[in-house]
Amino acid sequence: MPPRSAAATVMTIGRLSAESGCKVPTIRYYEQIGLMPEPDRSEGNQRQYSRRHLERLRFIRHSRDLGFTLDDIRELLTLAAHPEAPCEEADAIARRHLRLVRDRIDRLRKLEQELEHMAACCHGPTVRDCRVIEILSDHGKCLSDGHPPLD
Amino acid sequence: MPPRSAAATVMTIGRLSAESGCKVPTIRYYEQIGLMPEPDRSEGNQRQYSRRHLERLRFIRHSRDLGFTLDDIRELLTLAAHPEAPCEEADAIARRHLRLVRDRIDRLRKLEQELEHMAACCHGPTVRDCRVIEILSDHGKCLSDGHPPLD
DNA sequence: GCAGACTCTATAGCTTCTGGAGATATAGGG
DNA sequence: CCCTATATCTCCAGAAGCTATAGAGTCTGC
């Protein structure tokens, strides 16, 4: 009997979606931007995917979950296809991304403090006595001087 | 002599930009989406801003820096215009935002660990021995089961 | 009165998808 | 063979929050 899991040699796009966790329009989008190769088509013009497609898509999905950009992923995919190449580049991408993530954490922490401070400053029942609005209006009432952009 | 700082009663858009830290196209964009009111125009059809515009724009800018969405800011601006209204709502917006920020910090921390783990796993000189690609290919090699979406 | 800086409008692009419209394909049951 | 329900097809628009460009007009200082 034919296998019921991802072991099926041919998948529709819906199946690929279920197996990979990517939504159907997202898969078509990835194909459109050249991140996924164009699959074969059935007689009725429907996409037919193989396990190789699934693997690639899972790689993409996983990398996206880890916050890599599509451009990063494009590069990582190229690297993955050349096992003999030096891995410095892949490593560099990962490390750069790690720096980015740490940076974002730092900035978000500052923000967290600022917001805690703000929320703690609400003193009266009306907007007039509420510091939230006031602090937003006047940067000088902030804990820190500058808020770096979040992204 | 006419004042040289923001005390000028009338500003061009470039001046408003410099005083607020918002770029010129951003200011026009805010006007377009109704976040900033349409200012008077000079005879030559150029926008003329008052200090009230500057205050509003600074409020917006500061809130953006703190990560509030434009929709949040719209609401906060409305609230700010009604000092007699109860401040619960402003407070609620700030607290909701605080929760959001904390959530993002948590998720980014997990990511950080994952990436550290990954980077530490690079063992060989070629992609073949580099775990970065391998881990990306195979979710099972991850520290955690699921990576929640970052946003 | 002219160079150069600034501003105007309108429109398109960025990133990473997501959703809808309207048409076709396929699978399962009678 | 037909019917229906679901899945798929293409194409296009929209989301958030800007940013950039083109081509024209305006203002300022010397």
Automatic annotation (TrEMBL), chains A, B:
Span of domain HTH merR-type: 10-79
UniProt lineage: Bacteria, Pseudomonadati, Pseudomonadota, Alphaproteobacteria, Rhodospirillales
UniProt entry tagged with the keyword DNA-binding: yes
Keywords, sorted A to Z: DNA-binding
Name by which UniProt lists this protein: DNA-binding transcriptional MerR regulator
PANTHER family named in the record: HTH-TYPE TRANSCRIPTIONAL REGULATOR ZNTR (PTHR30204:SF92), REDOX-CYCLING DRUG-SENSING TRANSCRIPTIONAL ACTIVATOR SOXR (PTHR30204)
Molecular functions per Gene Ontology: DNA binding; DNA-binding transcription factor activity
PROSITE patterns in the cross-refs: HTH_MERR_1 (PS00552), HTH_MERR_2 (PS50937)
Protein source organism: Novispirillum itersonii
